[in-house]
Input
Amino acid sequence: METVFVPIKDEKDIKNIKLAADILKRGGLVALPTETVYGLGANALDETAVAHIFAAKGRPQDNPLIIHVSCIDDVSLYTEDVPSKAYKLMEALCPGPLTVILKRKSNIPDIVSANLETVAVRIPKHAITRAIIKEAGVPIAAPSANLSGKPSPTTAAHVAADMDGKIDMIIDGGPCAVGLESTVVDLTGDIPMLLRPGQIGLSVLRKFLPNIEVDKHVTDLTVSDGPVRSPGMKYKHYSPNAEVIVIEGTLENTQKEILSQMNTFQNAGKKVGVLAQDSAFSPKEADTILYAGDTLDHYAAHLFSYLRQFDDLKMDVILAQFEPKGDISLAIKNRLYRSAANHIIRV
Ligand code: TXA
Ligand code: MG
Output
């Protein structure tokens, strides 16, 4: 299949917005920019179209999808028994990088929710994508537009690298501002549960959901007891071809450890890339250094892109310097630990 690549500058590009909406309405797949990561969209009410998402990504069938709607009023079309706390949360934070898990109405096909009784709903902030959803007039199921297991795409070029020839259209709406996927909160039980941390952190969530708890799979990749509440959490994730090792601790300690690890790997003939958090850290022995920036928001926005870049540069090992600081740390940690398959050195 030929994949059409279409740059759209803003939501006033009605012609291309209609073009994308028409493809979605006809059952096609369109990669869409959002403020978090690029999504691979299909009409959520069309089972065949949704099945094509799973095929294009190589995604396990038991991993449910998020449906994207253009406004809060549309949430009740596809969900039931929505608690008032859900509306309060959405009114404060949507459109934005938040996904809420609610009880599913029967008009959402089983395949979307992997047979769960719930459905994940999100209202993206990106104006182009909201305009496309509105024009399509249907909810859009959209996982991140990467091959299953790979880092999520934060540019249209990343999407093309994974999806060219497999989908109908890629919309280029520029790089994603947040760079990590949305915060996922389950509101179907008495106690709200954070299933996936994102830019909207716990301190903000607690203002609306004082009793929110963090699902144990968020940072502990080793727990295997009990059911996994967010099926996506059990799979290999965000994995570049290179081996990732997280070096966590103060900037000073992590610098020392990175130098020592680098030495060991290079002596074994491996090419070592350093993802440096500290812009003053410039080990000349590194085969590549990419700076994650002085703020953790910048780290978040560039993490997936840098993991892909290290692969393009054929690094064998990525040493990721990480000093947790503030609310967004939980979200970065969650992705880093998974990309490293839990290989963490704390210093
Ligand atoms: O920022 C985002 O959320 C991006 C953009 C495209 O919107 N989408 C995204 O989708 O990250 P995906 O499919 O890559 O991740 C969705 C996560 C998975 O971990 C999945 O298991 C979980 O949400 N999920 C979806 N439906 C669920 C449900 N009903 N109950 C629990 N977890 C659910
Ligand atoms: Mg994903």
